Amino acid sequence: MKIKGLKLFFSSLILCGIMMTTAYAADKVIIGTFGDPVPVQMAAHDGKLAAATGWNIDWRKFASGTDVIAAMASGDVLLAELGSSPFAIGATQGVAFEAFMLDYVIGKSESLIVRNGAGINSLADLKGKRVATPIGSTAHFSLMGALKHAGIGEKDVTIMGMSPDQITAAWQQNAIDAAFVWPPAQTEILKTGKRLVGADQVAEWGYPTFNVWVVNKKFGAANKASLIAFMKAVDVVNLDYLKNKAAWTADSAKVKSIAVQTGADPKDVPVTLEGYKFLTLAEQLEPAWMGGGISKAVKVTAAFLKSAGRIDRVIDDYSKSVNIDYLKAAVR
Question: What does pTM read for this prediction?
Answer without folding.
Answer: 0.84
